[in-house]
Every structure is written in C-alpha cells, then in structure tokens.
Amino acid sequence: MMKKLKHKPYTQFKSMLHERKIGYGELSNLLGVSVSAVGRKVNGRSDFLISEIARIEMAYRIPKSVFLPK
Q1: Which of 22, 32, 38, 48 is the most exposed place for a label (fewest CB within 10 A)?
Q2: Cβ proximity of 37 and 46 under 8 Å
C-alpha cells in the first residue's frame, strides 16, 4: 500500500539538485538523516524541518522559497 502524499513533490528542488550534481547521499549527510528519508521528503511523503531547509539554503544557496507552496 502506497502512503499518501503530504504535499506535492519538490520538482524545482529536485531539478536544482540535479543541475548542481548533488545526490541524495550528500544531502542525507548534510541533514543527518538516511538517504531514504531524503527521498521521502523530496517526493512529498514527509516534510522537511525548518532547520533542514535552513541548512540546505546555507550549504547550497538554494532559496527557501522552493519549499513553499505556490
């Protein structure tokens, strides 16, 4: 049984990661979570914490606005 999405997947964020050649493994090291947890967060099955978004913004210069609903 598939888990329902909490939010839409972060397609813009995924695209930025791809452009910058940042893998889920690297992101998981930055955030201190498993690679599968990163996948769940990016694909809309769980949420990023505010502190995680702040780390991503500082480390990769990705604006927090990509995480906000449109």
Answers
A1: 32
A2: yes
Please state, in angstroms and as integers, the Cα–Cα distance from residue 61 to each residue in 4, 14, 47, 57, 66, following that order.
Answer: 30, 14, 20, 5, 11
Q: Would you tell me how many other CB atoms lie within 10 Å of the CB of residue 56?
A: 23
pTM of the full predicted structure?
A: 0.86
**Do residues 60 and 41 make contact, with C-beta atoms less than 8 angstroms apart?**
no
Residue carrying the six token digits 């991503």: 56
Contact of 25 with 64, CB cutoff 8 Å:
no
Q: Which residues contact 36 (CB under 8 A, 6 or more apart)?
A: none
Separation between Cα atoms, residue 4 and residue 46, nearest integer Å: 10
- Domain ranges across the chain: 11-62
- The model's pLDDT over 44-55, given as tens digits with 9 standing for 90+, comes to 899 999 999 999
